[in-house]
Design a protein that fits this description.
Layout lengths: L10 H15 L6 H13 L3 E4 L6 H10 L1 E2 L2 E5 L6 H5 E6 L4 E6 L6 E5 L6 H4 L3 H6 L1 E4 L2 E4 L5 E6 L12 H5 L3 E3 L6 H11 L12 E2 H12 L5 H16 L3 E3 L3 H17 L7 H12 L4 E2 L1 H5 L4 H11 L7
Parallel strand pairs: 1-9, 1-10, 2-11, 3-6, 6-9
Antiparallel strand pairs: 4-5, 7-8, 12-13
Helix pairs in contact: 1-2, 2-11, 9-11, 10-11, 10-12, 11-12, 12-14
Length: 322
Amino acid sequence: MTTNSTAVDVTEVTALAQRLRDSVGAVIEGKPDAVEMALVVLLAGGHLLIEDVPGVGKTMLARTLAKSIDCSVRRIQFTADLLPSDITGVAVFNPQTRGFEFKPGGVFANIVIGDEINRASPKTQSALLEAMEEARVSVDGTTHDLPSPFMVFATQNPIEMQGTYPLPEAQRDRFMAAISMGYPTRAAELDMLEHHGARNPLDDLRPVTDAAGILSARRKVGDVFVHSALKDYVVSIVAATRTSDALRLGASPRASLQLLRASRARAAVQGRGYVIPEDVDALTGPVLAHRVLLSHRAHTAHASTDDVLAGIVAATPTPRRT
């Protein structure tokens, strides 16, 4: 498997990723892995789902990354009484023109922050399906394109908490990756109290790029070289989730495509113009875990999705470098 000889220049992408990393890191203390994953998804052209308990910085991560980019940003607070039309928009009758005019909903922005997405009803959640897959919405038989670039940052609380609705499989599959923030380390929490206890850290944040810069970076990420052996490696991992006894629902073909795109972005963020097996291995959990369902047998054995996926990766032959 050749790599260096077919690499592309990703210097600009790496520099952009570093500026965003520094900007977000100034607000989000002690969460480099979560920040890195958010950058990968952003530059890969995907959508990110952040699940964790309240108060650990889910929405702050999304708001910080959004403010680091000079583009349009909308926040949608998902609640039980939120309607699909609040998200997609609605046609309103104008008595002066005696015709209907389209009023865009909250999804019409470059970056959409969906806060506590699983507190809305499944009907309202499904309003995002077309938008996340095709970057457009259909209202009253008319299709409206969304701004480019378009990305959804959604946060959700664990399903065991009161007032939540589990996201359906089709909705979860639209997210390129899902991550958890986790509690900060003691040192990171002390730093947070020291630097952010008196004022909002977002007040001093300034954009380090714009929408055009993100689009340019995404085009360069799409040129990152992936050897045919690595593409076969991706397909083998995803296919193994469909035959594993520990899983009753495997990953979809969309998952293969998302894993490949995320691997390209990770390589570019780390300064490489080519993908290596370690990129695929590192992203298998974040990209696949929210798409698969454990079997009853695995639940009984107290196995976790991450453990099952790690076992699949370990059992899949890794392509050799040449």
